[in-house]
Amino acid sequence: MKKLLILIVLAILTISMFADDFQKNSFRRIDDKSSVNTGKNVASREEAPVVLFEVDPVDIIVSYYDYMPGSYWCNPMKLQPEISMPYGYQAGGLYVAFHLTPNSGANTTRREYYAYINSASELVSSTTITTDDIREGYAGIDIDPFTGNPLIAWHNSIDGGTLLDCSMSYDLYSLMGGPGLWNEAFTVINNPDDGEPFTGHNDDEFIWPVVRIGPSPLEGKNRTYIVGHNATPCPTGSYVTNVLFGYADFNSSDMESQIELEFTYHTFPEWDLLQYDNNPDNDTRVTHSLAISDDGQVAFVGFYDKFEENVTLGRTTWCMQYSQDYGETWTYYETDATYEVNNPLDEAGDPYFENEDGSVAEMFASPDGNGGHYNALFTNSLGSENAKITCMGAFTTNTVENDTLNYWIPKTFNPKIFNFEIVNGELEVDFVDLYIEGVNPNDDVPSIQWDLDEDGYGDNFDDEGLLDFPASVPSWSWFGDANNYFHETNFKVSFNNNWGVAVWQDAEGVYLNYEGYPGYEDWAEKPQIAVAVSGDYGVTWSQPAFLNANSNDENYFTELDGMIPAYVYTTDQLEVIDEYHAKLHLFFMDDYSYGSFIQDHGANEGGMLSYAALNVEMPAPYEGSANNNELVNAPDAKLLQNYPNPFNPETTIGFDMKESGNVSIEIFNMKGQKVKTLVNREFSTGYNSETWNGKDDNNKSVSSGVYFYKLKTSRYTATKKMILMK
Fold first, then answer.
1. Is the pLDDT of residue 25 over 60?
2. CATH architecture, range 637-724
């Protein structure tokens, strides 16, 4: 008897009239009727972190556009620096960019909004960015680290034509010391004009913008990057999403003058070639995300299915566009991303999976484009001189025959961490199994759910001889059709020095309820939020902690009671609470009717866009500065690490001054309480230092422990950690 899984071809995506610009799906999928092991069945590894609510969910505004409110490839919520320069206003708040429709009317205009949440986690404002009553959406956002001003870009139809374009605006927080002074929106991607000189095509539609801000090679300026993703299908009908990339330089004076930024553009020939390839067999999508560093490195990392004649295995390819000079020149890298998988042996010792003709099926695992909604961040690697970029995605396992027919098995969709690195001129990518794990989550051997002990045999079989294995459903919704992964997954990472947090959603209980498994009756419409942590720059990761609204489950949180959290986003950057605890900001939709109405699931009842923050226990002490928002554009000073450290009874705090000016240095304890104003006076250009003798402002000796010292000048703020050990 053939041991093939029974395959069911799922419905092709139907495009909703309300979502003419959401991302199109070029994949077909299958499900299987194997058994499901409802136990977790995961390998032993570091325990899940303790997660508590630091800030209970805060209502922002109701939206009836219940699909991806914060866009696809970037986090829609960004942290300000503590001080907004050049005038020294207190900042430290959060800007959130999102789209919504305010009511359920079929002709209601979808608009782009922003919300500002201050440093006390209070909602200050939530309103549209412009007064234009035109269809807008899918914004990218970043914060200028000097002024604290947000730059936001979104797509719309500027001239009423058939192609969408992208506009940008920035809020002049630095002039007011508060939000709400938006400059007049200006065009940053005019389709097809801006892309046509590079691609030669007049139907390109580069939308879904991503915005990032980093340092500039021009003195006294920062550089903002804009990325538009192509929504035009290639000749074979698939959606490759090659990109239009641009950059522009600015400073605070430019913002105060409310200038329109002037961008320099180009595209990438390797991805353009895929977009305009007429080969009907080259049905692929490039899945990628943009990362920038604080020293001028810029990169896109991702993967795609590489068509090669007479090659049946090895189609999926890791890829990286990499620039060391602020995005001005680029080098392209590729390496194989397909991993051979053993065909498991059945109970009689024979290969389990067969092809239609009875031959033994060849099997593989690879990253999957259905998990393409992720952000990417530059991180540091312990013991490595090379820059590393970390993101989160998913793998699937399949047979080669199924893959050639565009069939796919959803239950093998596993979330993983991807680490990209250039070593000796070659691209190296390692991955970490997040959930569900094999013997060693860090061995670059993908976990296979039916063979978690990796002995080549299936772990479990049911009474009918079918493989019995745990399901992995990293999505907030499950309806058994084509939308559940491609449209409804959202993988995001946040970092701060050695600390990393990965956030996604899990619908395993919803899936088991939907499929009628006993014991899961109370899991209907109850997705979970999953949180895994790293204390070593993303090299190793914990098991995930789960948060849900199921009052009968051990992971129930009263703060989520009655809620259906969907499309959970984070900030790119964690905040430091103390040596072992991070503050993780969340933005999500509390869906009023389970499933996205925009994606043809659920009722047209909308949902509440919400903010919350978690207190996450980290697996290792924090190794960096306690200030999450050290200014990139800081030409007048540099704070140095104290010496000695640890110290007893005194230590020296050094700093370099590029120009003379006033300097204040304050000492804080672990609770954030100031214990000493060390100095507040004028210093000259060059190296300077001050000594702290371990005493507070009352000249009393402080106890042993961790302390933070904070330096402020007119244009610079930085904080570092020191340890007093008696």
1. no
2. Sandwich (2.60)
